[in-house]
Amino acid sequence: MADLPRKTAARTARLAALPLTYAGRSAIGFGKRMGGASADAVMSEIQQRTAEQLFRTLGELKGGAMKFGQALSVLESALPEEMAAPYREHLTKLQDSAPPMPTQTVRNILAEDLGPNWKNQLVWMDGAPTAAASIGQVHEGKWHDGRRVAVKVQYPNAGEALMSDLRTLARAARAIGPLIPGVDMKPLVEEVQARAREELDYELEAEAQRIFAATFRDDPVIDVPDVVAVGPRVLITEWLDSAGSLATIIADGTPEERDHYGAIFARFLFSGPARTGLLHADPHPGNFRIIPNDDGTPGRMGVLDYGSVARLPQRGLPAPMGRLISLCAAGDGEALIDGLRDEGFLKDRINLDPQLLMDYLSPFVEPTLVERFRFSRVWMREQFQRINNPKDPAYTVSLKLNLPPSYVLIHRTWLGGVGVLSQLEAEASFRSLMEEFLPGFVSTVEDRSDPEV
């Protein structure tokens, strides 16, 4: 696949066909029901087959399709298990597979970006890619000073394919919605679109990665590979040896591994903004690599991919965010409404029932009410289905709240992080992390931890 947009019409047709295929399966399902099959069995079969096709299509197309699939992956724990299983399977393949970009194409890009003498610096490079990204692929190499390096090369005209895919997905968002019940497609596609151009800029990505690498250089549990060289379509970083991504722990990890890597994952997401002034805003499991100790016990975690980063002007997460969560945890609904209005979350003429508001925000607050909180798929699924169920009174809150632009990426990352912790079924000291790294947050409750939770 030397040139992603080379067959743009074919790519567009495959994406646009997804809702039509779902409709066709639904029609066949109706026929099966007429023949005596139960409605639940028929719908389960339709959703499983559609889930498999959706993620297979997104993975094969790469580009914006794959980026959209990665954004969906963090919400997988909120889906019914019969749909989540095929999503997990295809997302793992999508995150770790490598598309075949011809070696000569890679060499041409290296020469254009690093200069004709690039081989004097990159003295060896494996001809076969070792990993795939949504807009490029990664090769192992060796730098002239002996360091092993990861060479990320962007697909030719990747930007064109990326934006074309996202425009198609935006047009099809409403029709694709029934494929994934409970997920509002339109804002998800819009958010991916808004970040896409930034992720095409490898020099901007390198700038962010250098800051994270310097900050976490001596961290006891987190590894961030430093940047070695960068060009418009090439990013070379230090090589990171790992035993796979968090996806492998999600699939087959022991309870000890789940808690260990879940705790590191949560600490990185919370501590990163406070220590760097930047928020790593792409928390899908493929970006987090597990590095066991020599004896095989859980060890360190490597963090990759700094293309989606929120630059926080206040150097850290916003203090009002911590104050609002504290008010909700304390049950002060009236003060919470005043605070939300002050921060632009609630327009002047919009009124809300304080209790319904606190019920709606409970997925973000409940983990702070105990010393250690056990995340789980069951818990995430219950929260997600409740706040997305039009029949639930809390659902009306979502229609009245406004998300200020400065909070959009923070909200998506927080929700994604909670989703990954729920996939891991990890227990984490969420409250203590917020006390340490979230400005404005003050715990107002006594420890209610229950070892059985």
Can you describe what's shown?
There is one protein chain. The chain is 54% helix and 11% strand. The protein has helices at 8-34, 39-61, 63-73, 81-96, 103-114, 158-176, 185-199, 202-215, 246-252, 255-276, 319-329, 333-342, 354-360, 362-365, 377-387, 395-400, 405-424, 430-437; strands spanning 122-125, 131-132, 136-143, 148-154, 222-223, 227-230, 234-238, 278-280, 288-291, 300-303, 309-311, 373-374, 427-428. Strands 1, 2, 3, 4, 6 and 7 form a six-stranded antiparallel β-sheet that branches. A three-stranded mixed β-sheet has the order 5-10-9, with helices on one face. Strands 8-11 form a two-stranded antiparallel sheet. The model is unreliable at 1-6, 19-44 and 447-453 (pLDDT under 50).
Descriptive tags:
453 residues, 3 domains, single chain, alpha+beta, 6-stranded antiparallel sheet, Phosphorylase Kinase, domain 1, globular, 54% helix
Quick take:
The protein contains 18 helices and 13 strands. The protein is an alpha+beta fold and 453 residues long. Mean pLDDT is 79; it is low at 1-6, 19-44 and 447-453.
| Biggest sheet layout | 6 strands, antiparallel
- List low-pLDDT spans: 1-6, 19-44, 447-453
Helix and strand content put the structural class at alpha+beta
Query: If you average the pLDDT, what whole number results?
Result: 79
Shape: globular
User: Could you tell me the radius of gyration in angstroms?
Assistant: 23 Å
**What fraction, in percent, of the residue positions are helical?**
40-55%
Indicate the proportion of strand residues.
5-15%
DSSP E strands, number: 13
- How large is the count of helical segments? 18
Tally of discrete structural domains: 3
Q: How far is it from the N-terminal to the C-terminal residue, by CA?
A: 48 Å
